[in-house]
Specification:
It is globular, with a radius of gyration of 16 Å. The chain has strands at about 30-35, 45, 55-60, 70-75, 90-95, 105, 120, 140, 150-155, 165-170, 180-185, 190-195. The protein contains no helices and twelve strands. A hairpin with an 8-residue loop joins strand 10 (about 165-170) and strand 11 (about 180-185). The protein has a single domain (about 30-195), classed as Trefoil (Acidic Fibroblast Growth Factor, subunit A), CATH 2.80.10.50.
Length: about 200
């Protein structure tokens, strides 16, 4: 149920958070698994495969206190709402800027040599959608018929016609960690919860 805020009537419709409100660009949210425990948990950051590995987007299966809020930015200038299936967005962890060089999500350029997975890592850059930034852009797709649950999709050709193929994002088990990576199989289901400081 919405929390009393007037909801926009959009075509295509807006992505809806766990309170029944439309997702807004520039606002902070948690991304949570739509799965129940023990497979549920918030999305945060971590290092997969040793201390020297790149910072990767992972699921934490312990508690919400380890979650990091995120902010969505639309590829469409002036867009206030995040819309199902059509809004290309960048996703950024909201952390102190001095902590990391970049907290923007991006798809790894290459597969991991051991796991053969293309992880979702940090290190993306702010910029207009195009062939120089195509690994930074994602879409949010409605999971029918489940209410207000979504999958996150990587569709690089939406911003660069010569880029790779469309893929969904799933959570994998790797050395005791739960990284997000591209998949051609079953996607993972997520919900979005408004950040309450």
């Amino acid at each position: 149920m919405a929390d009393g805020q007037p909801q926009p009537v959009l075509t295509p419709p807006a992505v809806i958070d766990t309170y029944g409100n439309a997702l807004q660009t520039g606002s902070m949210y948690y991304i949570l698994s739509a799965q129940i425990v023990p497979d549920g948990g918030p999305i945060t950051r971590g290092i997969v495969g040793g201390d020297q590995g790149p910072m990767t987007v992972v699921q934490d299966r312990s508690s919400l206190r380890n979650a990091l809020p995120i902010v969505f930015y639309s590829a469409t200038p002036g867009e206030q709402w995040i819309r199902e299936s059509v809004s290309s967005v960048t996703i950024r962890f909201q952390t102190p800027s001095a902590y990391l060089n970049s907290t923007i999500w991006q798809v790894a350029e290459y597969e991991d040599k051991t796991t053969r997975l293309r992880y979702i890592q940090l290190g993306g850059v702010v910029g207009k959608p195009g062939c120089k930034t195509y690994r930074n852009w994602f879409k949010i797709i409605k999971n029918t018929p489940f209410k207000n649950t979504y999958r996150i999709q990587y569709d690089p050709r939406d911003v660069c016609p010569i880029a790779g193929r469309r893929r969904n994002i799933a959570v994998f088990s790797v050395n005791g960690m739960w990284p997000l990576a591209l998949t051609s199989d079953y996607p993972y289901s997520f919900v979005f919860q408004k950040f309450d400081p």
